[in-house]
Every structure is written in structure tokens, then in C-alpha cells.
Amino acid sequence: MPEHQTIEWKESWQDEYLKWICGYANAYGGILYIGKDDDGNIVGIKNSRQLLEKLPNKITDMMGIIVDVNLKFEGKLEYLEIIVDKYPSLISFRGKYYYRSGSTMREITGKELDKAMLKLQGKTWDGVPLPRIKIEDLKQDAIKLFKKKAVERGRLTEEAVRVSDIILMEDLHLVDEDDHLLRAAMLAFYEDPEKWVTGSYIKIGYFGKSDSDLLYQDEVHGPLIEQVDKTVDLIYTKYLKALIDYKGIQRVEQYMFHRDAFREILLNAIVHKDYSGCNPIQISVYEDKMYIWNDGAMPTNLTSTEKLFQKHSSKPYNPKLADIFFKSGMIEAWGRGFDKIKEACEKYDGPLPEYDISEDGIMVLCKACDKYLKLLHGNSEENNSLTSNERIMSELMSGKMKEPLKKILEYLKDNTEITNSIGQELTGKSTAQVRRYLNALCDVGIIKSNKGTKGNVYLKQ
Fold it and tell me: Is there a contact between 50 and 100 (Cβ–Cβ < 8 Å)?
């Protein structure tokens, strides 16, 4: 049997191997063989009878657990088999906690120890109660926003939200048996969650030519249920440039990355973030790309971009918080969020975001789509052509003709012809000015002049 996560070979016994037994008990259990070399060959031990009597008592005395210690034979060689079961409670050895992970044994400390203890109790970090927060401390606007979204998306009925705040929190399973609100309720609905959890906000920065060239920045604070819309609106009004393209007379705003895809990535960051790390979600925006980082973790089987965009189960890092966002209609269950990201990227014919998942957190790289890059750099044939309708219209719509032309173009959406007098009524401009507008639209092929006995009529092409 080869050495792996639950099998270990040692040539002779040393008391430091008690750490390994502790680690097995805290992980998945395992078997420790004494009397085998690193290749699994049986080399035997001389004091097997003494160890057979001493080890069970020593392990019980030092860790309070019972293990099976079996004497094994191969020919004249004797070796020991120590079988360790997984224990439902966390086991310590000399005041420290160990965990078997892969082929290594490591000590559990800090927030990792806290998570391990919560897991053994069937709890998660966001399910811990906060005795000092009361229902009346929650922000009413945040609760109203939740109710509004939940009803609009059909996740809750009008009747279900027409209850007191305490009943709503109980229905959402955000109150413990002693009527204390849970951390998830505080994060989602409390006015200032940073009072209780450092770093529970979103930090945004716009960078120039290098990572050190920070041009401007913002922070989004408040209840998490409100942070989502605030952040999306801020990104798409201040940080991402909307380049203008035209399809005929239709004005199209082209962003580097689809808004719906960004929204899903942001929601994933909020739900999967490790809030005990005390670091804000960080969004770094550049001219042609964007990074979203959070101090979180994915399930161990989802380690790459490719796996994330395949069919997989939904295992949120903060299940209580995820349930709030699910019932609000802001996120989907069963991993559907990645399907929505893919669908949104396809609308832009753009690349999927790239995920870098490590012990330091989750970094998502969102690259600009090709259409945006062509408009940005002017490298397409149409943008390089001086007679391009799209380029001329873009120039016209960025100058003084912008507002009058918008009114004329709106009129032409529902009508097949226009005259100078109609143009004057629409814009309030003089005959000469309207003639310039109409001639400009003739130049780009949107309308054509059709002179007749009743004067000059312009027909939509």
C-alpha cells in the first residue's frame, strides 16, 4: 500500500510522531506504520513488544483518544500498525492542534483554528451570534431594499415580507436560540459593519500605465446588501469608459466588460470572502482590463478557471450570507452565477474572466473585449477610414451638434422622412442650422435629399 494522505511509514518510533496521530484524528483518520522505510519496505523494529504495551496508554493519557495498536509480522520481522480514527471534536497535543493535509503535518493556529472548531460544531463563521447587536440597530433602508428585491424576483411573497423585522430575521434563520443576531445579518443589514468586522467594504482604484500609477480611488461602505448596486453604478459611471459606436442611426455604448458579468463576479467576491481576514474587496481598473480580488477561498475541487465554468455544485464560503443574497434574487443557486458570467461575456463576444485561486485569495482578471479595444485604439479598418459613417457620427455626436442630432435621430426612429421645418420644431434652431444637421446626416448615409415641388424632403435610408 503506497504512502499517501492517510498512510505514513516510519522506520522507528519517536515521540514527535504523536503529532501525526493528533493530525490524523483532526483530519480524516489514518494509519501510521512503525518498522517500514520510506519506500514501504518492512525493516522491522526490535522494541515492538514494549511499544505495543506503552503506546496505547501514552496516546490516551496525552490526547484523550483511543487508537488501535497492532503487532504485525513478515517472516521474522515485526512492525506496528497504529490505526487512528477521525474524531468529532478537535484534538490537541501538548496544548497545540495539528492537522494532516496531503503528505504534510501542520499546526493549526489563528483564524484557521477558529474555522476548524466552528466546523466541528456544524457552524460557519457567518453563523456566529453577536449578542451586542439588536434588531433596532439594523438599517431600515437596507431591509427595505432586501424586501423589494426579494418580492420583485419572486423569491419571497408580499405576505412573507409584510412582517416585523424580528420575524423576518427568524424566517431567514439569522437569529440563534437566544435571539441573538448572527454575523451574516450584521454584514448584510447593519449601518456600519466595519464596527464589528474590519475590512467589510470595497476599495476601488484607477491605474495608469503601471501598478504604482494610482490616479484616483473610492471606497464603498455600508450594509453589504447596498454595496453591490453602489459599486456597480460607480464602476460603470466613473471608472469604465463607454466608447461610442453606431449601428446605422442607433448609438451604442461599448464597455470593455459586460455589466452583468461584472455584477456576478462582485457578488461571488462578497459571498465567498473570508471576512475574518479583515481585508476589503479590491477592484483595480486599467484602460483595457480590470482585477477583482477578495480574501476568500473556493471549494478544494474548484482550482482553475476551466473547472469553475464547468457544471459544479454551489458551496458558498459564507452560506448564511449567501442565502440572504439568494432570497433577495441577487444571486442564483447551484453555481448558476458562472453560467450568467459566460452568457454575458458571449454578448460582447469577449473572453471569459481568468481566475487565480491561491492561499492569498481569489484574483479575477477581466480583459477588454476585442470590439472595445478596436474602438479604443482605432485599429479597425472602419476606424481608420476617413469616410467611415461610424467615425463621422462619433465625431458629430461629441461636438455641438450632439443634442439637436439626438432629437432628429429619435424622430427618424419612428418616421421615414423629415423636412427642415420639422427639424426646426424638434430642435428650436434656425433654418440654416437645421440644414447643416440634415446635410451632415446625408453625408453619413442616414438620410438622402429628395427635392420636389413641395420643397426639400429628406428620406430615411
Answer: no
